Fold each of these.
Amino acid sequence: MTNLIKAAAVAAPAVLAASAPAAAQSLDETINQGFASATGWFVSFIFSPFPGTTFPWIVMWLVIAATVFTLYFAFIQFRAFPHAISLVKGDYSDPNDAGEVSHFQALATALSGTVGLGNIAGVAVAIGIGGPGATFWMILAGLMGMASKFTECTLGVKYRNEYDDGTVSGGPMYYMTKGFQERGIPAGGILAVMFSIFCILGALGGGNMFQANQAHAQIANVVGDYPGWITGLIFAAIVFLVIVGGLKSIAKVTEKVVPFMGVLYVLTALVILIMNADMIMWAFGQIFEGAFTGLGVAGGMVGALIQGFKRAAFSNEAGVGSAAIAHSAVRTKEPITEGFVSLLEPFIDTVVICTMTALVIIITGQLVADPNTGLYLLDEGASTIQTVDGNKGVALTSAAFSSAIPFFKYILAVAVILFAFSTMISWSYYGLKAWTFLFGEGQTKELIFKVIFCIFVVIGASANLGPVIDFSDAAIFAMAVVNIVALYLLMPVVKGELDSYLSRLKSGEIKKHS
Amino acid sequence: MSQKIVVGYDGSDSAKAALAFAVDQAKTQGSSIVVAHILEWSPYSFLTPTELEERHKRRGEELDRAEVAILAPAVDGLKDSGLAIDTALKYGNIATTLGDIAKESGADQIVIGRNGEPGLSSRVFGSVAISLAQSAPVPVTIVP
C-alpha cells in the first residue's frame, strides 16, 4: 500500500506537470496571495514583538512557562527520566492489563504526530535564518519543554472523559472545563472554547498545510518543479480515503513505517556524523559561538535565539496541548505516569532528532560563510543565510544529506511524505476532537470537519512557504497561549499527584511487576 | 493425587486434539484442567490515534468474543467428563503467557497442539511450540 502511495504521489504529478504548467502557476499564485492577505493580521498579532524590541512576546511566553514548570516541579525532566524509561519498557505495567494501550504505544503514537517535518524542514528553516546558534537555543528549549509536556499530559489523562462504550476523549478542553470546575476557577468554558478554535486552526495550519506544502516541495525537488495543487489533490484524496472512508490499511501501514523511517533518519545522520567525526567539535563550536554572537545572522544573538525557540516549540509542541489529546487514551490508574512518559517526547523529538538534522546541515557545509571573518553571508533580503545551492527548508536538509550520501534524497523524499502524512492523520484527529467539543459528536458534523481538512491540504500544497509557515506557527502558538494559562492554574493538581506518587514509589507501595 | 494441566486452546483441530489428549490423561491421573486461550498482543506495536481511543472498547469486545466462541464451547464439551475444568483468557505473547498461567495456577504440565507444517513463517518467527519448549516452567507435551 505504501508503495502505491509513493508511486502515485511521485509518478502522477510528473505526467500532469508536463501538460499544463502556465495556467496552474497562476492558480497557485492566486491561492497564495489570497491566503497571505486573509491570515496576515492574525500572524502579526501572535508574533508582535515587545514594544521597542524585536523579541516576539509569544516566544517569551513559552519560555517562561517551561521555566516555571521546570522550577515548580524541581527539574522533573531530569529527576524522572530513568523512571520514565522504566514505565515505557513496561516494568510497572500490570500483566492483567495486557491488551490495553501501553505507555509505549501512547508515546509512539504521540511521537509520530510530532516527529516529522518540524525535525527535517523546520530545523533547516531555523538554521537558515538563525544560523548554527539557533541549535543551542533549540536544545535548551527542548529540555525545558519536557516539563511543560509533563504537566499537560498528566492533566490530559486526569480529566479525560470516559464514555460508557469504553472510548475516551481527553485534552486541554477537558481539563479546562472539568479541572477548573473542580477547583472553583471561573471561565474554564471560555478558555476551552478558545483552545478548541485555535486547535482547529492549528490542525489546518501546522498539522496540515505546512505538511502538504513541504511534502510538495520535497517531491518537486526530486522529480522537478510542477504546480502544487496537483500534489495537494493527490494528498487530499488519500487523506480523505483514510479519515472519511475509514480506509484503515493506509493509516496502519504508515503508522508502522513511520517509526522505522525515524530510526533510519537518525541512523543515517549518525553515519554522516561519524564520516565527519573530525568536524563535530567544530560544529559544536559554531553552535555555541553562534548562540551568543549570532555569527552575522539577521538579529544577531536574539535572531538565533528566536529561531531556535520557535522551531523547538513548533517541532515538539510542548505547552501547545496537542500531546495531551494523544496521551489521554492510555489506561492507567496513575495519570502522572503518562506525564512521566510524555516528557521523553521533547527529548527524542528535539534534543535528539532535531539536533541530528542541525549537525548534518552544519557539518556538510551548506551555509556560506565569509572565509575571512567567519561570519555567515546573508541573502539579498538580508533575512536568510546564503546556502551553497540557494536551498531553503526541506530542500536544504535534503542537500545536506545528499552531499554525504547521494541517494539519500530519495529516502528522505519518501520519509518526508510519510511523516507529513502521519502528522496530518494525527492532527486531523486533534482537530476533530476540538471540533466535536465545540459542536458535539455526530456523523454529519464530523464529516464537515473532515472535508474542510481535505480542502486545506490542497491550499497548503499550493501556497508559498512563507505565508504557510507563518500561519502554521501562529495558530499553534495561539493554542499555547490558552493552554498555558490553564496549566498555570492547574499545576498544583499535578504537584499533588506527583508528591503522592513519588512517596508511594519510595515506600514500595508502587513496585515493578517484572 | 491432584495434578493440574494447562491446555493451550484456540478452537482449531490441533487444539481440540490437545484437549482430548489432556482429558484422557486427566481422567487416569485425577487431574484438573485449565483451558487457556491467549490473544496475541504486543505492547510495542503501533496504533493510530483513533485505535488508541477505541482500544479499551475493542479489548472488551475481543475478550467477550473469545469467551463465547472459543472457551465456552470447549467447557461445554467437557461437562460430562467429570473433571474439574477452569479457564484462562489473557493477552500477550502466546508462549510466555501460557508459561505464566501454568506458574500462577500451580499446574504441573502444559499441553498444546501442533499447528501444521513447519513452514517458512515458523522458521523465521519461531513457533509457539518451540518457544514454549525453551521457556516453559513445567514439562510441555506437544500433541501432533
Note: Chain B is about 50% helix and 20% strand.
Amino acid sequence: MERRTLIRQTYKQFDKLILLVLIGLVGLFIVYPIVSIVAFSFRSGGEFSLTHYQSIFSPANRKLIWHSLWTASSAAFFSTVVAVMISLSAVLSGPRWQKGLEKAVMISMISPPFVSSLAFIILFGRRGLITYGLLGLSLNPYGPQSIVLLQALGGIAFASLLLFANLEQIDLFQVLASRDLGAKGQHTLKDIIFPALRPGILSAFFVLFTMNIADFSTPIIVGGSFKTLATEAYLIAVSTPNLGQAAAISVLMVPSALIAFYFYRRNMRLGQTIGAKRSIKDIDLGLRLPGWLRLIIFLPAISYFIITLLKYGVILVSAFANTSSGRIKWTLDYARTLPPNNLAAIGRSVGYSLIAALAATIIGLLISWYTHRRRLPLMEGVEFLTSLPYIIPGTFFGLGYVAAFSSQPLMLRGTAIILITNYCFRQLSVPIKAANTTFSMLDRSIDRAAKDLGASELQTFWTVLLSPLRTAFINSFITVFTSSMMAVGAIAFIVSPGRTVASMELFRSVGQGRYGLASFQAVLLIVIIFVFNLILLLFKDRKGGRDVSRTKRSK
Amino acid sequence: MKKILSLLLVLVLAIGLLAGCTPAQDEPTPADEPADTPEATDDPAVDPSLAGTTVKVLLAYGGAENSFEQFTADTGINVEYIEISTGQALAQIQAADGVSAADVWFGGGVDSYISAAELGYLEAYVSPEAATIRDEYKDKDGYWTGLALVPAGFLVNNDVLAEKGLEAPQTWEDLADPAYHDEIIMASPAISGTQYAILNGLLQAMGEEAGWELWEKIDANVTTYAQGGGEPMPKTIAGEYAIGVLATVGSAYQAMEEAPVEVINPTDYIPWTPAPIGLFADAENPEGAKVMIDYFLSQQGQEKLMAADARIMTRPEVAIPDVMETLDASKLIVQDVKLFGSQREAVLARWAELIGDK
C-alpha cells in the first residue's frame, strides 16, 4: 500500500514537472523573444525612446508602407480567389478526384517560396527561355507586378488547404435537400457552399496578407528597386547595425498579423465544433452548372496545376542545363561545382528539422493534452501564446531571437539550439491544432474509465490516449519538418558559420543570380523533402495500434 | 518545500534539456568529418593538438573555399564557413554587441576591418609570415593583414552589348553615358566592401567634388543596387545586364571561357582594396585561427589561394597571375587605405543621400 501511494505521488510530481517545463519553454522561446524585440524597438542608445518609430513615418517610409499594403493585399486576394476555385472544383468533381486534388495541393507546397521566383526569372527574365529565347524580348522582370504574381502563386496551396477543411463542415443533407427541392447547381453553390467557405476565405485572406507583408525573399529577388517594409527591415537588419530600426519596422507589421490571427482562430474554432455530421466530401453531389460557370471554376484551378508542373520542370531542367543564352545546353557543372559547405548544410537542415519536428510534436501534443483534455486553468492562455509565432511575421520572430539570445546568460547565437528552437516554436501550433482535433473526437469517458481503473493522469495519457494521437503525431511531424526545411524568413538573421542551412544557401544563390546552381540546390532540397515525406507516410500507413481518430463520436 | 523542490527539478531538467542539445553543435556533420586521423603535417609550426579542431570563418573571398580542403589536409584543422559580405558581417556583429560567432574574417573590403578594429571586435595578431608584405597592405598593429589585392573594373557581356548596339565602356567616365541606362549592375557600397573601395578610391583619385559628380551621373544609369558583391558577376554572365561593376579577380577571367563575357580593366583608374584576413576578438579557437592566418600568408598558402581564385597576392615572392598580365599596374589608384575606415560613415551617408530610395 505504502509503495502504491509513493508511486502515485511520484507520478503527480512528474506531472507537475512536465507542465512547468512546458510553460517554461513557451515563456523562454516564444514570449521572451517577442518581448525582447518590442523592447528593442523602443530603445535607442540604452534609453527609452521613440526615435525608431518617428523615423518610420518619414515620407520615404510611408511609401514603403503603401507598397507593402497594396502588393500584399492584391497577392492575398488573387491567391484566395484561385483557392476558392480549386476548392469548388473539388466539390464539383466527386470524392475520388477530390482526394487527388488535395494530394496535388499538398505536393505543390513542397518547395521553398522563392523557387517560384527562380523559375519565373529563368522563364521570363531578361534572358528568359520564353521571353528572350522564344519571343526575342528582353523585358525587365523586376518590379511590383512580379512580386504580386509570385506571392499570389505561393499562397494558393495554403489557402486551398484551409478551404478544404471548411468543405468538410458543410452539412451534406442540406446540400442534398436543396438539390431535391429543385435548386439549380449555381444556387446551391451560392447559398450553401459559398457561405460555408466564408470564414475560411476571410481567414485565408488575412493569413496570406500577413505572410506577404512579412515576406522579404520574393521582393528582394524579383522586386528590383521596388522596396517594401519587409525588404527594408531585412536590409536594415543585415546591412546596418541599426537593429532597433529593423525591430520597429517589423513591429509595424504586427497589427495586420493580429487581425489575421483573429479570423484564423475563429475559423479554427468553427472547425473544431462542427465535424460530426456527414460531409459533402463523401459522395458525388452531382451539381449541374452552366458551362460558363464550370469554366470559371475549373480554368484557374487547372492553370494552377499546370503552372506548378511547369515550375518543377523548369527547375529540374535548369539544374542540369545552361539556359543563359536563351537556349538549353545540358551540363553537370552545377552538381560538380556545388560549394563545399553545401552538403554539410543539407545534412544540418535535415538534422535540425527532424529534431525540431520531434520536439514540436511532443511539446504540442502535451500542451494540447493539458489544455483540452485536462482543462487546467491558464492553459488556454499558454495555448494562445503558442499560436502567435505561426502567424506573426518571420522577420519579427527571427529578429526576436537575435534580440533575446545574443547576450549572456542566454547567449545562443552561433549554436544549433537557436536554429532548432526557432524552427520548433515557430510551428508549434501545428501539432497543437492536430491534437486538439483528435481529442475533440475522442470520448472523454475513456479517460474516466482509465482513471477509475486506477491509472494516474500521465498513465492515462501514455497508455490510452497516445495511440489515437498517432495520425495527428505523424501529420504534424511531416508538416513541421517540411516547413523547417524550407524556412528562410526567421532563419535569415540567426545563421552563422558552421550553422548555415540548405534553404539559406539556396536563397543566397537565387539572390546572387546563380540560377543554375540555385536550381540544382532546389532540386536537391525538394527531393530530400519528398523522400522524407514518403518515409514518414509509410510509418503512418503501417498498421500499428488501433486508429481511434477515425471513429467518430456517435450522437 | 515541495514546491521549491519541484521548481528546482524543473530547472535541472531544463538545463539538462539544453545541455542535451548542445552536443549537436560540436558534432561534425558527416560531410565535413575530417579524415580518420589527420595526417602529420610537414609544417612543424602547427601544434598537433590543434588537429581536428575547427576554425569558423566569415568569408567574403569568392573562390577561397576551394583552398580550404587543402588547408585541412595540410594542417588537420577543419574549416566551417559562411559567405557574407563584409559590410553585412560588420552590421550583424554590431547588432549582436560584438558577437561574431566566428574565429577568422577572411577577405572582403578593408573598410569594415578598420571599423571593426576600432570597435574592438578584432584581436591584434602580427603574423610572422607578414614580414615581407608591404606596409600599405597591412595594419601596423596587426588587426588585419592583406592576403591579396583586389582590383576592380568591369565585366561586359558582349552578346548583350552587340544586341543593343553598344560599345564596351573603357573608363569610369564612360559608365555615366546615358546609353548604358539600366544596363549596369553594381553592388551597394554599404554592403559590398569591393564596391565601397571603388567608391572611396575614385573619390580619392579624382578629388571629392569631381568624384561625387561622376557618381551622381553613374547612379542615374543604375536602376537597382545589388545586395552583395557576389551578385553582379553571375547576372552579367547570365546576360541580365550588359555591364557588371565588380572585383576583376580570377573567377571573372575564368567566366570568359564559359560565356560571351570579357573583363575590362578601366584605362583611367583601377580601384583596389586589400582583401584582408583578421582574427576575431571573440574567437573560440584563436590558436587554430592563427594557424589559418599564418598559412594563407605563407608563400605556400598564398599560392594555393591564388590557384583557388587568381588575385594579386600581397607577398612579393608570389608572381602576378597570368590572367592579369593585361592589367596596367600604373593605373592602380594611389590611395590611403586608412581613409577607407575613417571616412566610411560620412561617405556612406552621402551615398545614401545620393541614391535616394533606390
Note: The two ends of chain A are 41 Å apart (CA to CA).
